[in-house]
Amino acid sequence: MSLDAKTVTRIARLARIGLKPEEVETLGHDMGSIIDWVEQLNEVDVTNVAPMIGTGLAKPRLREDRVTDGNCRDKVLANAPEREGPFFTVPKVVE
Amino acid sequence: MSGIHDFTLASARDALKSRKISAVELTNAHIDAIERLDGQLNSFITRTPDQARDAAKAADEVLAKGEGGSLCGIPLGIKDLFCTNGVRTTAASKILGNFVPPYESTVTANLLKDGAVFLGKLNLDEFAMGAANLNSAFGPAVNPWKRSDSDTKLVPGGSSGGSAAAVAAGLVLGATGTDTGGSIRQPAAFTGIAGIKPTYGRCSRFGTIAFASSLDQAGPMARNLQDCAILLESMAGFDPRDSTSVDTPVPNYEAALKRGVKGLRVGIPKEYHVDGMPAEIEALWQQGMTWLRDAGAEIVEVSLPHTKYGLPTYYIAALAEASSNLARYDGVRFGERVSAPSLDGLYEASRAAGFGEEVKRRILIGTHVLSSGYYDAYYLRAQKLRTLIQQDFLKAFENVDVLLTPTAPSGAFAQDEKPTDPVQMYLNDVFTVPASMAGVPALSVPAGLDARGVPLGLQLIGKFFDEETLIAAGHAIEQAAAFHHRPTIHAGVSA
């Protein structure tokens, strides 16, 4: 079942992706069919099954609390689409 | 210069060490092949011939002293998902069209340390999302293979489609790939080459552009498993900069080739006999069982009861992670920016312009399954299913050493045969996704041609960190299959 335009628009807003009206319709249809397809997971009884969060192969590690990287401001800023001095710029957010 | 394109990575390494050939000669021959053929294949997004020539010259100096790492002077291609210091890295996305990383990924740094020569950055599906390399902002990579009865363009598989095409056509001696749900194995099968997805945590993810972090794993793609083994040994290893990297020694993978399969227990998962599987895929699978049995292995039927839930579970888990990972492309710190009067407007406009159709679809689904009111029903349930899928594998491996399956449910299809239904497209990964979900290693080896002359692969799945047994069993298949076919478009074929 297609997702309605209101739902698609709400999700797109959450994901901060601007959509054209014709995209809303196509995506609603595609997403609906994918959502319908994953509904089959409801057949499986998952009572008392722990969720798998990663493979658990790597052991959490502790390390000494010291600086291991940094002092590379120009590298960090090198790919900025717009910058002013040592800052990234964005449209005014506070009036 | 005929013969230079007959080298495998291993034979080129030996010829370089014994100074029968120079790294400059070898590199120039590959640069020349790229110039001749890549107009048809589009396997490269960025070529770096000048840097390659400099690196080859440096390699020759080291080799002349009788020194040099395992890959000294070997020309490779790098999937354009690995950050390369000072060389544009795009993830085949418009949003990273001008991104030049100021640092090197650990995997490529390891290869460089061993003396490899990089010829450039290879095409892929945008952010590694796809199974046909049709989702690239730089146009599709093309399979060097053609059907015997037509000239139609076939897809090289995906997402590591450029890596697969370049290796198969002899433009590089090996390439890096990444595999999230089959992105090394399926394109390897589609192009008649070998590819290994190692155990999750074997190769560092540092500096590899993320798609689904709990699944992404780098691995080698090359013309045979010996070449893959040499590459994997260089790529693998513990990295403190990746919290999921596992600190366990890297064995000599090449030595595992000679182990043989006598007494090995090979499991055949009965659930992989899926409805509608083409007869020739089923026949190839049977042939694989016979080859391994003849080489001394024992074939045992096993059950992986949650197999059918692998794909839908994957598409929830992977897309949820993708929506989160791709939030960083916001037009502020790097990447393409589309100006707008408000900050949210800037995000929405930049992301609308920068992402392709499939990436948008996946981010939106991922956002949906993580959103308030849907999280438990979709994402949490998928994580529980993932536990069950992993348990299936762990149980099977109590009784067998490796599993044998087909790699993909078909051979390479034509560009214009791409299914319009996204779910149909996702079915390409039906045999590769479950191993990714479990985190276990798997590989694909070329095993034969279909009725129309297009290569088919067999997959082997192994225990955690037991890539060596996989390589041994894979090599037994290689020897029995004696796959020496070459694609229509190949550097060694004079026009």
Structural features, described:
The complex is a heterodimer of chains A (about 100) and B (about 500). With about 100 residues, chain A is mainly alpha-helical. Chain A is built from 3 helices and 2 strands; from the N terminus they run αααββ. A two-stranded antiparallel ribbon of chain A has the order 1-2. In chain A, a hairpin with a 2-residue loop joins β1 (about 85) and β2. Chain B has a domain at about 5-260: Amidase signature (AS) domain (Amidase signature (AS) enzymes, Alpha-Beta Complex). Chain B has helices spanning about 10-15, 25-40, 50-65, 105-115, 160-170, 185-190, 225-235, 255, 280-295, 310-325, 345-355, 355-370, 375-395, 420-425, 435-440, 465-480, and strands at about 45, 75-80, 115-120, 175-180, 195, 215-220, 265-270, 300, 400-405, 440-450, 455-460. In chain B, strands 1-3-2-4-6-5-10-11-9-7-8 form an 11-stranded mixed sheet, with helices on both faces. In chain B, α4 (about 105-115) links the parallel β2 and β3 (about 115-120). In chain B, α2 (about 25-40) runs antiparallel to α3 (about 50-65) and α5 (about 160-170) runs parallel beside α6 (about 185-190). The model of chain B has no long low-confidence stretch (mean pLDDT about 95). At the A-B interface, α1 and α2 of A face α10, α11, α12 and α13 of B.
Give a brief outline of the structure.
The complex is a heterodimer of chains A (95) and B (495). Chain A contains 3 helices and 2 strands, in the order αααββ. Chain A is mainly alpha-helical and 95 residues long.
Q: What does the average pLDDT of chain A come to?
A: 93
Could you give a short account of the major beta sheet of chain A? 2 strands, antiparallel
Name the beta content range of chain A: under 5%
* Biggest beta-sheet profile of chain B: 11 strands, mixed
The CATH fourth-level homologous superfamily of the domain at 5-42 in chain A: Glu-tRNAGln amidotransferase C subunit, N-terminal domain
